[in-house]
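Aim 2, interim progress: modelling of the 9GP-bound target.
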Amino acid sequence: VKSVEASIPEPQREAWKKHQVEGFTDKDGFEKEVVRHVETTLARSLFNCDEGAAYSATSLAFRDRLITEWNRTQQRQTTADTKRVYYLSLEFLMGRALDNAMLNVGLKDVARGGIDDLGFRIEDIIEQEHDAALGNGGLGRLAACFLDSLASLNYPAWGYGLRYRYGIFKQEIINGYQVEVPDYWLDFNPWEFPRHDVTVDIQFYGNVRKSQDENGKTVAHWEGGEIVTAVAYDMPIPGYATPSTNNLRLWSSKASSGEFDFQKFNNGDYESSVADQQRAETISAVLYPNDNLDRGKELRLKQQYFWVAASLYDIVRRFKKSKRAWREFPDQVAIQLNDTHPTLAVVELQRILVDIEGLEWDEAWNIVTSTFGYTNHTVLPEALEKWPVGLMQHLLPRHLQIIYDINLFFLQTVEKKFPNDREMLTSVSIIEESQPKMVRMAYLAIVGSHKVNGVAELHSDLIQTTIFKDFVKIFGADKFTNVTNGITPRRWLHQANPRLSELIASKTGGHEFLKDLTQLNKLELSIDDDAFRKEWAEIKYANKVRLTKYIKKTLDVTVNPAALFDVQVKRIHEYKRQQLNIFGVIHRYLALKAMSPEERKKQLPRVSIFGGKAAPGYWMAKQIIHLINNVGAVVNKDPDIGDLLKVIYLEDYNVSKAEMIVPASDLSEHISTAGTEASGTSNMKFVLNGGLIIGTCDGANIEITREIGQENIFLFGTLSEDVEDLRHAHTYGSHTVDSDLNKVFDTIQSGTFGEPNDFGAMVAAVRDHGDFYLVSDDFQSYIDTQKMVDTEYRNQDEWVRKCIRSVARMGFFSSDRCINEYAEGIWNVEPLVVK
Ligand code: 9GP
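Predicted structure of the complex, ligand included:
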């Protein structure tokens, strides 16, 4: 790190203190800051200030405020010298920052007035911001919720990630197909601070030489190869209703100064002189767009090492300033591995301690394992990371040696505990003896951490009884735990649904519930208050009207806001079963078509809303998108159907769109095959916004049911304990598909929704190829449950009561509760109370 650390001598500090920047606190001060930024930072004036410039200046005014508190928070944490948490995540799906900053520092009303005085509307200004979309889905959004909670609860914590130049691609739907467009989001980003003085040189490739030191100890030297420089970019993370402002540090790659070939440049060979530079910059250029899928690309491994090496260098440097003994490292530092992506950090810390700091292996290993915790987010085999040994050897030769040593010592302890059990050794070895040999990253993460957690009760049970069961035998059950996911009520209620947040505040005695979500339970006391329920329903209706307008504007489809809005927005994946949903929609369409006009008049109008991105290489997921759009194209224009059914595909689903869609939902679909969705977090967002769920007994649906009561959720489908038997029966027994689903398939194959062959593979996956996701098993109960939904929705008063009761019982699902559980059970850190 080439950071300059100079300190102003005591006598001169008075001048600094006198001029300390405080930031605005009222409307006048805010306006002054905005005008100053428009005129000086942006070099514009009142004659050419458009909404974009007004957004920039507003953001800069808030950023200045945040940075003052950010500086103080860092100062406070350094002085207190307490333990810090470092959250390592390859994804932070932050969404927009301005609205969040205004609400968290409690100055949105001040800004609203000021923006109004200056001739703009705050809603239009907020809309100008580009989402920070540095993530794929639930995993990245969870990390963003955690940052909000860590700051709001005053925990000394930093996030570490990569500063991708391109976040998740922008999705366009053209002729019903997904088309990917690059998301270049960094044109103007007022929320980041480049720290050109905080850089770390990261080594790749090369080879390892061993020598003996004066005591005869073998020392490894990693030499040669290539160097890429990591540059830090910091984003302030403001807590809600507290001055605590934490840091998210994102690393960007650039060529190290030694890599630029001046010789070639001077000889006029400009192109190849910059080639190395471009190669270095490629490391942090793009986010891999796969959700729950591991593709094993070399650049991805490079990203992982680049990011963990830079982050650990930073963490170790900060620790070394305290001049403590190494054994105190775990008392000062807790590092959480968000999934297996940062697992190389385990190896890197061991390398730093042994090769660079000269500690003995065992002492170093004790420090390492006491420092790390690992969160598993999936049991899907295709998502569990493995790297070919050959690639690891080539890219990180010293790390591979260390991995082999870690494995050797680990297997020796296993051998002691389970003598002569070769099967056990093969099953838990970090190196998979396959062709080619692979490094199993999840196993490395387990062996290198003191705690391993799943993200919902069912998921945590499943990892302990299936994929990691042998590790439970080896390490004991205490090493494994559960922390059920949560969401931040600040963004997912207060920001996304301001009217509902105000109504709740009026019934629960203020905004305390945003700090302690269990306070929502007071809502049940008002459930018989007619005016309250009326206002509740009005707010939902207004949110639906807003979405209706958006649908009209973007898709030119008119939908009836009084219809039941049935929403499934999330990544497109066979295990999440959007195909089951669209088959159900086709079934509904066929049923409506078969009815007499009189009968039709008695039916409940419904809008089926879909949204979500498919990984660009995931062909079947793209087929599902295509089918949904084709069904919409037919149904939405069918004069027999009219308002009774509309099928909508919302393009480019992202965090800011979720903030509009979630509050407008009556019913949301969380219908994964049991045992496949680790938790899900959008299920929590939908319920918190007064919508009900149709769902399977999977992930956090189970705990949501327990909290809100099974009378308030529409559950259906196979239980996870029966999944394996059914799969087996599909393959080895006779597998039949019931007549309703067959009718759906026949309609698809008759060409009603496009070319008959277009969706052949999707139909065949269910009918002929073993139906791995159990669509045929769950179809009938899904349809029956949807009928129940129709019936219950007709009784609006009871429906609203169900929604209120559900919201009242959602206190458990705050990410604040999660973070407190991690802090107590895994990190052993305390909040730093601000006076
Ligand atoms: O698929 C899970 C999702 O169920 C969970 O809510 C989220 C956060 O824990 O993580 C997802 N997992 C991944 O994206 C890949 O492991």
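The CA atoms of residues 671 and 696 lie 5 Å apart. Residues 137-139, 142, 291-292, 339, 377-378, 383, 455, 485, 677-681, 699 surround 9GP (CB under 6 Å).
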